[in-house]
Request: fold
Amino acid sequence: MENEKRDLVTTIAQLTDGMAIYNQLDTTEKGLSTQEVNERLAKYGKNVLHEIKGEPLWLEFVKNFTSLMAILLWVAGLISFIANLTELGIAIWAVNIINGCFSFWQEYRAGKATAALKDMLPAYTRVVRDGEEKKILAQELVPGDIVKLEEGDDIPADIRIIHATDVRVDQSTLTGEVNPVNKDARVVRNTTGNHADLRNTIFSGTSMLKGNAIGIVVVTGMETDFGKIADLTQNVKEDSSPLQKELNVLTRQLSALAIAIGIAFFLLATFIVHYPIVKAFVFGLGMIVAFIPEGLLPTVTLSLAGAVQRMAQKNALVKKLASVETLGSASVICSDKTGTLTQNQMTVNHLWTIKHSYTVSGEGYKPKGSILEGPKEVKAADNPDLFELLRGALLADNAKIVAPNKHHKRYQVLGDPTEACLEVAAFKGGINPELERKIAVRIKELPFDSDRKMMTVIEENVAIRTFDTFTKGAPNCVLEQCSSYLENGKVKKLTAEIKQKIMDANDGYAKQGLRVLAVACQQLPEELRKEIKKASIANVEQKMIFVGLIVMFDPPRKEVRAAAQLCHKAKIKIIMVTGDYSLTAESIARNIGIIPPDSHVNVVTGEDLKKMSDSELKQALKGEIVFARMAPEQKYRVVANLQQMGEVVAVTGDGVNDAPALKKADIGVAMGITGTDVAKEAADMILTDDNFASIVTAIKEGRGVYSNIRKFLLYILNSNMPEAVPSVLFLLSGGLIPLPLTIMQILSIDLGTDMLPALGLGKEYAEDSVMENPPRSLKQHLINRKLLFKAFCWYGLWASIISTGAYFFSNYFSGYTFPHLASNGTVYAQATTVTLGAIIFCQIAAVLNCRYEKKSMFHKHFWNNSLIFVSIIFEIVLFLALTYVPILQGVFGTAPLGYRDWLFLVCIPFPLILIDEIRKWVVRKRSSN
Ligand code: ATP
Reply:
């Protein structure tokens, strides 16, 4: 099979005749029919690479029981069994098993969440089937399909080229060779035996860096060369995020601390309280188990994965968990304009030639509307300049408009909207696009690139027309290569004065935020026509004849204004980096609120930037700035300088040349709709709707996750305080105060009441207030003094006072006072049960209090997070079981409580909530002042 397949690709590369290729692959110029496609799909299967199986599930499961902490707990349990402390052994192992299962479940769900994302971004490709051009899922491609490829596309199969313009391909995934290689349609006579050397074949897994091509699919899926090395792409391991790493270290430190505390407590119990050694050992061991933060890491992972899923629902696909937290600290967004801040729904609304200016009526891509000069409707045929302007623009258009059909209710654009609207304008001027394309057949294209900002087409067979070469592009760039202009059909010399007149007209439109394209034409010199291969940018795009301007409107996206305001509030700077003209860029930036209405803005063009030193650039970046007429490569420099200034930068991009900047940025954001596959691969996040507002939503989520993680850390840490204080009292009193909370009871808190509420806090919605503060510094640690203070000296302190108070009161009501407290029997069991209950009810208040940092908990979203309420119910049910189920009473040393105890316990959360609400109110007042 291997040899057969190799033969097929090589054999087809060696076929000279187009017909022979079609015959060999049993297809035609019109492509395959639907029936043939179905048959081939059944025969060859889908064009996908089979997943290489990851680790088996059981191994993933077992791993959760073999971490350092888990081993520690296994050993602790084992020692308990050997020391004949069966109940303690069972409790410790139960903690371990529950934690392990819980961690596995969380990781499994997090994994599912990220795996689902891969399917959300299907790759598409353009094919010709049934004689029509269509956009299909790349996985539905079959051998014999005719494929159209453009700059930036990932190659979806092994394809024999039948037509190519300036194709350069990055084959590094196959060969490791980083330099791009040229490809064309010419026959290969001598083969080296190496597939990658076949000049007329492009291979799956590689990408098109330049040019465009039409080709026939030879093999698909696992039959391709890339299929053979599929494991290269599939064995990519996800890196832990800095946050996960930090937590890893933190968990280890806390575990070490727990062990130290355990040993200290053991020694103190032995030597100060003179506890029997076994009892002291139990005591120390219990403290270790209680203080080890077992579930922290998986809870964080699940919390990040949850955010990734929520972001995906809001049109932002994050490729790595680590990006979620970087997003939260983004301080600058460098955004493209077209399609991201604007809708990229172009409509031509003005036309301008040297003697006339026109308005164009109608909206969008509907072929309805007309061209008006003042109030009078005109047709292209009425004026030779208008005719050449519309015809030139039409012929230099590679996009296709698809009329509404059963799949789409509206007109659809295949290709670039800037081009699609040109066909509509020509139609409105009375030009028949089909006919014009038949009269003039394209023989060569010098494709558009964002560096020279124009493109040219050369036509053949245009005997009945005057010109055969058309260029369209950015007016200043086109004009620079013109030496004459068209006036009422006559070619005249372009003077400085006329140039100024043209640029004045351009500026007038640009100031209104409109996008302007210039059209130029010429007759190709005879010598180039004879040897069309020699026609190049250098010898064609020069001494051209300026024809006119095409002006189009691209409405801003509605959501952008509010998103920009939110960024201002959150102290996130927005920098527009566009290839468009400076006046258009500035006008739109003001219009959508990126730049405040009256403030000064520095508009820096690509040319200006070339002349600036890095320190000048940094100085300019401190103020309001817009970059216009930028080449994509220049974005890299802007990003690098911003990073040197300590900013965390998010950058948008769609083209091949944007890839370096996307990689350099802290968050590279690629466009899902208009973006090339190369850009998507280089990015950390993909916007499925290309919308700027989605970046801001993602940043809000990122900030929300970080604040949620702090919330549950606060929650988990605060319960350690009331767990430890009773033991400390016991030790300090030299045993005069019997243990207010037994070791088994401490473990029950760990077993049941820590994890679920923490998980609930991890799922909390991002508060609006997260966007009221400046971005967090990446150097800032998750656990800081403020958090520790709040955990131990605020929530923890209240809980300790209440729970130890409860212990003494319970004793008091049964007739026992210090120093004659009950040390065994029902009264002791009841007193410890009340202490345990008090801690649990304090935890209920704490989980509610921790939900919001500053905001009052009473508002319309109170019931939104159901997991919080489920966890509260769980805590109460668990406590009831511990108190009333006889076996559990025996194991945990608890006793049934009286109505007075219950009344006390149920009342605990209310004052705690009240006190914290007052604290939050004071904090809010202080920060608003
Ligand atoms: P942004 O960079 O914000 O997405 P942009 O679309 O203006 O904006 P580029 O795609 O780099 O950026 O285009 C630069 C300029 O090239 C445009 O302002 C326009 O004048 C011209 N241009 C854009 N698309 C085409 C095209 N298909 N054919 C000819 N000229 C074009």
Q: What stands out?
A: Residues 336-338, 416, 418-419, 448, 450, 453-455, 472-474, 517, 578-580 surround adenosine-5'-triphosphate (CB under 6 Å). Confidence is low (pLDDT under 50) at residues 1-6, 231-237. The radius of gyration is 35 Å. The first helix runs from residue 2 to 13.
